[in-house]
Amino acid sequence: MTIRIEVFKGAETAEYIRTLSEMRVKTFSEFPYLYVGNVEDDLVYTQVYSTSSQGMLVVAFKDETIVGIRSGVPATQTKFLNEERRQQLEKQGINSRDYYFCGELIVDPAFRQRGIAGQLMTKFIEEVNAMGFPGMIAISSNRARNHPLRPQNYSEKVHYLSKHGFEKNPLVFTAQYPTQQPDGSVKVEDNQLACWVRKKG
Ligand SMILES: CC(C)(COP(=O)(O)OP(=O)(O)OC[C@H]1O[C@@H](n2cnc3c(N)ncnc32)[C@H](O)[C@@H]1OP(=O)(O)O)[C@@H](O)C(=O)NCCC(=O)NCCS
User: Fold this and answer.
1) Which of 59, 157, 162 for a ligand 1 pocket mutation test, highest count of atoms within 8 Å of Cβ?
2) Which of 62, 73, 81, 100 is deepest in the core (most CB within 10 A)?
3) pLDDT tens digits for range 18-32
4) What is the DSSP letter of 10?
């Protein structure tokens, strides 16, 4: 199967932003994210990739169909890195101006386990290095092992971020969004996110 990987920066990403939001709303409704979103509201967040001149989408196409997306933006431009977290990183010798933030990585379920995320990551890292950012920051969902909505067959894989040179950092991020509750209701609450850092080299 031939997959084509293309890179879009800043305003060039605009064409793909709605697809990214559609993929986010669908994919992140599942465990561990439990995000109950809608595309129109989600677009407020994903616009950042178009409005930042160094925003980036790395897109995997099968013919003309999008089957995977990796997004990112300079770390100083993501809402996840507020002043408090910036200072906490600074204390660890991590200057956020030197870092690029990894947004979402999503592969269409029908195309998973074929190395597409790996190809997207490799291209993404190449581009980030070419833009002159020595390091990268990423986040991942942190759900309790005994979370009632964890599927029984949910397997903990070797994290794709570990495979690409990221190390888990003690810093914990939060993201506030409408979250599926075990009793079926939806509540806007803070969700914990683990922080990962990939240093130069
Ligand atoms: C994570 C994801 C992008 C992987 O896509 P993929 O194209 O199947 O990945 P590849 O075939 O290149 O590599 C497979 C590797 O990805 C990693 N991986 C798969 N699912 C993962 C998950 N839920 N969390 C972390 N890493 C995962 C594993 O290391 C896996 O290798 P293994 O099966 O040998 O353990 C895909 O499962 C996905 O879209 N998941 C939902 C969205 C998501 O959780 N994205 C990550 C956070 S934004």
Assistant:
1) 157
2) 100
3) 999 999 999 999 999
4) G
